[in-house]
TrEMBL record:
It comes from the Bacteria. Catalyzes the formation of the alpha-1,6-glucosidic linkages in glycogen by scission of a 1,4-alpha-linked oligosaccharide from growing alpha-1,4-glucan chains and the subsequent attachment of the oligosaccharide to the alpha-1,6 position. Keywords: Glycosyltransferase, Transferase. It comes from Anaerococcus prevotii ACS-065-V-Col13. This is Alpha amylase, catalytic domain protein. Residues 476-550 form the Alpha-amylase/branching enzyme C-terminal all beta domain. The keyword Glycosyltransferase applies. Residues 18-92 form the Glycoside hydrolase family 13 N-terminal domain. One of its GO terms (molecular function) is cation binding. The keyword Repressor does not apply. InterPro entries: A-amylase/branching_C (IPR006048), Branching_enzy (IPR037439), GH (IPR017853), GlgB_N_E_set_prok (IPR044143), Glyco_hydro_13_N (IPR004193), Glyco_hydro_b (IPR013780), Ig-like_fold (IPR013783), Ig_E-set (IPR014756). PANTHER family: 1,4-ALPHA-GLUCAN-BRANCHING ENZYME (PTHR43651:SF3). Gene3D superfamilies: Glycosidases, Golgi alpha-mannosidase II, Immunoglobulins. GO terms for biological process: glycogen biosynthetic process.
Amino acid sequence: MNTRDFLDGKSFDGYKFFGAHKKDKGYIFRVLAPNADKVSIIGDFNDWQKQSMRKYSTGVFSITIDEAKVGDTYQYVISIGDKEVKKIDPFAKSIIYDEKASQIVDDSYKYKYKSKKNLPNNILQVYLGTLFNNKEKTADEIYRDIIKHAKENSYTSILLMPINEYQNYKSLGYSSLSLFSFSKRYGDITSFRKFVDECHKEKLQVIAELDISEFDPDECGLSDFDGTDLYNYKYEDIHFNYYEQANFDISGPVSKSYIKSAVDYNLNDYNLDGIYFSSIENSIYWQGDVARGINKNWVDFIKEINDYIVSKGAVSLASFNGIYNMDLGFSCVFDFKSKTLINMLKDEPYKRDYYKNHITDLIKNSDSNGILGFSYVDSYQYEANLAMKIYSDDKKLDQLKTLFLFLFSLKSPKILFMGDDCGDLRTFSQYQIFNFYGKSDKIPGLNDFYRDISKLYLDTDILSHPLSKTELLDVEGYSLYAYKRTYKNKSYLVVVNFTDIDYQIESSFNLDELINTQDLSYSGSGNINGNISKGDTINIEAYSSAIFKIK
């Protein structure tokens, strides 16, 4: 690493220099604190007795400790005048959050498999916290369950919610103590690296969410690190965000290099296939408020980060809690239109025709760069997960199957939060235990259907290829839609019924039915169509849907 580049905000590899690094004997520790008069280090290796670090003209403090070893914990003691404060290493790869101390980790693991550098098609979003609440399973067993479930359900990518260390369990991992620390709540760093390797062996992508807009304001962390605003804003009105977390000030060069280096570290050290940035409006607008205007520093910075991620052959994903049309260079963006589908399915059936313009827009303008589906936000908001939000108690299965068929009949990439593919009927909570293979509180038959419809989508260019075409067809009925999906010279007919009325439609084609939500194998009524000749009737029950091959 070039120290001058880091100080100028140009570095993507600060982690190769700062932090704890193994030497032939012991470890060398480096920390940037240009305003500090003195920095000492205390830890297991020196019986927590201060050892002064050498200061260089760049503001870097350094020391080599022969006795330091993997597993040792430590802190920096920053001295400014007569004031001392104990700090976590900003580049620590592990943090013992209840001790407010950094920890040296084993970096010996060598990856066997390469990352998968392609756009995701079907994304499983995972919150590791509820999985690791299950103390009866080891970390390796939990990671194997994730891989098994992803493979069985034809997911191409696993999207992990923030994996950096954090103090407040309610935060779900947002507002971390360091952008380089892997949370000990999720096993050790070696177990995680093995998990990523096994995913790549199984041809699964791994993408991690990185919260780059904010950090934990605890005195032990980055806030006023050397007595100055090295990472945070110095002005009180923008120092903290709406959630009372500290904002990164990327108008300062050190914050820029710190975040850039974190992006590269996640891609390289974890061998990830991409980075996901959520709620980007919190960065591009001052304090996340449209009325306060655009923060141009952040807009330019995000573009620079995305250019770098793409140059590394990785993917950059983002979500906005609202509609934002500026091109910031992301590979894919979550399509905000998906949320209107939830609103429609929460409504009584007779009101759903009011959403016709929205549905036809989704059908005609499905975009291979816009991710359709439902993230953890949809299983967290209003204290009701996806299945719980669906209208009625006894028809949730039929409506969820039709919702999934509709989504997978469009070419956009898909996302679903864990549990929603099997109709988990518990409100998401970070305190509960989640088990992919638990039987309680799940809708029978739904996961069987999800497995088949997602596999059909991935196996069929007609449905998933970016160059596939869609033609909306005229059909009479409330909340009833029919459209052709075509790739090259092959076509499918899709019929979707979002309302509680049975329909009979005269077919304009000779058809072979490929999948129907009312198939008995999906706990349906068994009223399906099979082969249909031109002029015959297509039967579509209430809340049902089907895909046919046009002969």
